[in-house]
Structures are given as structure tokens and as C-alpha cells.
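Two proteins, back to back. First:
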Amino acid sequence: MSYRQFFRTFLAVLCFASFASAGILQTFKVGRQPTHIAVNRTTNKVYVDNVLDNTVSVIDLNVNKVTATVPLASKPAGLAVNPSTNRFYVSVKGGVAVYDGRDNALITTIAVSGTPSIIAINAEDYNSNNLNIYVQDSADNEVHVIDTASDEVIAELPVSHPGNGIVVDPTANQIFVSSASPSGGSVSVFDGTSYQLISTITLPGNPSFTYLDTLSGFGFVYLYAITHPVGGGPYSFSVVDTSSGALVNQIPLQGTPGGVIAEGISNEEAITNDGMSKVDFMHQNETKIHCKEQVGRGPAGMAIIAPWFNAEMVVANRLDNTVTLVGGFGCP
């Protein structure tokens, strides 16, 4: 058995022994059309933007209730949390609004060009010199790099076409940005220090959302993407080895999948399925979805609460204006 196979097996057994079965723990009523969601694992608070209300709902999991509704200047298009500074960031018209997580007060609005949308943050403090946020600009085909210390735009990362996914590998200090076009999709890989393009990963179809799972210390670095054929057809869950750009696996999906996220350290993944009102669970080495968990209508964004200790996650259900707290690993 190879080094990599040994640790894959070891981690899978560890997770199987540590995680309980999934199940709905609680449902929270929030604003209209909750879409993007993020968790501050330090304070145990959940933030979800309500697109039709121009607000952000704050859920405090210490008391299991919605404790605040934060008004925004315009319709939100992306959201992220920096647990190191206890701040949360929301893409609004013309910029990124910065809020203090202690009292939900607006600190500043960072002006950016174009149409800011998806936000990713180097939130895991592996590289203390690079606590940046990355904001996808769907109008100008670029990513705005914002320094969280100065709240200023310090670089622009050009991409070939607009996309709907951006993730950060904090260990390698690399940024992955998806691009979709009539001729096919790709992921641009940028260096987080020089902001130069390192490589381009070609995907089998247009990547509608990407998520990077980094198992620090074990060398398992995979990019997870939901892809859709250029000419139409069913969606797929694609697994890409970021070191080589090779396609590791592809699993067919039903419905209209929205987001993909990694659960814990055993390469288990979950996908929200808007068309099916369910969360699909699978292992990256499987050939099909092994189970589904019913949540609210129109599940969109989701976030993991504590990936190394349990698989609790929150799901924003945009069609019934709720957030579902799901506990456990996999399905009952």
C-alpha cells in the first residue's frame, strides 16, 4: 500500500468512527432568498445574505437563534467571514461592505470596479503575510485582491471569462478562479504573493462552482467542481488533482446542483441540489451519490461548522427563506 493510500484509508476510518449519522438539528427562519452563507468558527456565528431583503441574518449557534438582521446598502452578491479579525464582508453595488462581528456595525465600504460577487478569503492563518480577500468581478473578468489590514484593493487578477467560483489554498498560497465560456470551462491558478498566473486547469465542461479541499501535511490537494457540458445535458461532480491538473473522478448529478463543499478529512463531499431540495453526499472516489438528506426548498450556499471534529453544516434554502442546521456525516 502506498503512502497516499495508507493515509487515505487511515483518515477515512478515523472519520467514520468519529462522525455520527446526519440529520436535521434545527431550522432557522431568515429573510427572503438566503443565498450565500459563511461561518465564524471562533464565535460560532452564522451569516447569511438575504438577496430580496438587502439584509444579512446573523444566527448565533451558542443560543440557537437569529440574533440580528443587518441592513445593506444594496442587493448582496457574495459573503465571507474572517474569523481572525471577527469581521464579515458582503459584496454590494460598487464595493465590498465590511462589518464588525461584535456589534454588526458597518466599518467601511471598499470601493471596487465592475460587479463584485463571490468572495473568498484566506481565513486559515497559515500565511500571516497574506490575509487577503478575493472578490470575483463578473463584469470585468477579473478578481479584486483586497488587503484586510488596509481595506484597499492591492491587485487585480485577470481571467478569460466570467465564472461562478473562487477558492483559496492557504497552505500553498494559491487562488483558483473558475471561468465559463461557450467553448468550455477552465480554472485559472494564481500565486498569492506575486499575483501572477501559474497555470490553467481545463475542466470537462463549464465550472459553475468550485471548492478546494486541502489536507495539510498529507499532500492531498483536490479541486472540487460542479461542471455542466457546453452543449447542455446533466451536471457532474468533478474531482481534479491540483498538482497535475488531471481529472481524478467524475460523478453524474441530477437536478440543478448549486454548491459543493468538503466534509472533514476523509474526502467526503456534500452538494446542494436546488432542483431536488436535497443535499447529496458522496465520496470523491465513488461512482455515484451514496445518499441524500432532505433540507428546505432551493438549497444554495452551505458552510461547515467544525470540519475536524464533526460534520455539522448549515444550508441556505433560498425558496423557503430558511437555514437548515444538519448534523453528522453522510446520511441516516
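And the second protein:
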Amino acid sequence: MIIRKKAAPKLFAAAVLTATSIIANYSFAGAAREEGRLLTATEVLDDVQGMPDQRLPDTLLAHAYGIAVIPDVTKIAFFFGGRHGNGVLTVRDTLNSPWSNPVFIALTGGSWGLQAGAQSSDIILVFTTKGGIEGITGGKLTLGADASVAAGPVGRQGSAAIDVSLAEIYSYARTRGLFGGIAVDGSVIAIDKSANADLYGKKGVTATEIFSGQAPAAPETAQRFLARLSQVTHTSARLSPAPQAEVPAATARAPAAPAAPAAEAPRTYPLENQSPQ
């Protein structure tokens, strides 16, 4: 087929518009998917803390520097076993600080032995040391190798019996309505960069930017998750869960208001390799 020269620019423009529409729809779908994960993670916190005899011990939560909620972790096994799920991780600088903006993570693990079947679990990880958080060098952390991990106790008696110094991370799982400690040694936690880019609407956004509040604003679903987590851990909620990193030029020309004292100094977390690729 012969394409006339006059028609070529129109065809090119149409192709550009189509490609732009596809990219925009894909980004919107990605953001909606991540918001759904935040809603599900919030529901997991609600359900678990609504079980008095199986809830997370208050003593453990009071010593948590980071909490990861990973809903619907699927485990499939036939001699070789595999586990995978996507969730969110939030951290705090001190035990009295508000929780940071949520960062998306992926949990992947494997096992070997006589096994068969499939199941889905909601997994919660509680980080009791800063080392457990900062150990995700290069965006990955192997549980049991880079940080010690133990199946956590539950319920009222768990608060009295737990010794937070025994492990850097305590792991829990809810399967078929039952909630309790789970062994996740050998599993790998990795920063989900594409999911973070979708939710925060910024390509290449890093975990450090998100944790320190330097990423673009997150949707209301992230604020709802942080509010529920603050209730569970009995800490104050962040007044602005996801402040904008960039201020428009027009705002800069407005008269400056008296500066309010900063709630806390910006902090960094060496979770990712920031060096240029």
C-alpha cells in the first residue's frame, strides 16, 4: 500500500496519541493495583488485631522499627516449594516517631523436601532493630542470612513471654483464619521499584525518598494504612503522610509564613544502591 506524503504526518500523530493513551492507561491501572494492595494490607491489620487471643503482642509492637504487611502470599509445592507475595513496608527512626510513607516490597522464597499442595497466607514481619531495616543493601534482604528471623508468639501470653533481643525480625502468618508464627528463613525481601513508581507517580522514585518524605504525595489509601498502623502500635499519626518533594515556582513567590519547628529531621535509609547504573 502506498502512503501519500500528506497523510504520513497524520498517521504519525495518530500513532503517538495511541501510544500515549496506552501508557497513561497502563500507569493508571498500575496505581489502582497498588492502592488495592494497600487496602488489603489495612484489612489484614484490622482482622489480626481483632483477634484478642491471636493478635500481635503489644510488647513486640512497642519495639518495632519496621513493619511489613504482605497479603496473599502464595505457596506452591511439589517436592520443590516456592513462596511469593507483594506487600508494603513502613519504618520509623525512633520508637516514638510516626511511621514513614509505605514502600512496596516483594517476598520470594523456596524450600526443598517431601511436600505437595498450595496455600495462601497473609504474612506480617516485625523488625525490632534498625540493622534489620538498613540491612536491605542493594534493595534485597535474605531472612535468616542477612538478618536473624524467628516465628513470633501471639496473644496475651506472648507479650509477657517475648524477648525482642532474640531475633531482628519476627514473622507471622494468617492461614485459613488461624494466626501464628511462621518460619520464613531463606526468603528474600526486595524493593518493588515499579510498584513504587506507579503509586507515587514518579519514575525511578527510591525507597529512601519515600521513607524520608521526599517523594510525591501518596493517595488516601496510604494515609488510611498509616492511620490504622498508628492505632495498632499506639503511636501518633504523621500529620502529612506523604508531603510533596517539589514546590511549584508560583508558591515560592508568595510571602513567606513564619517557619514552624520541624517535627523530625529528614533521615536516610541505605535500602537501595543509589549509584548510577
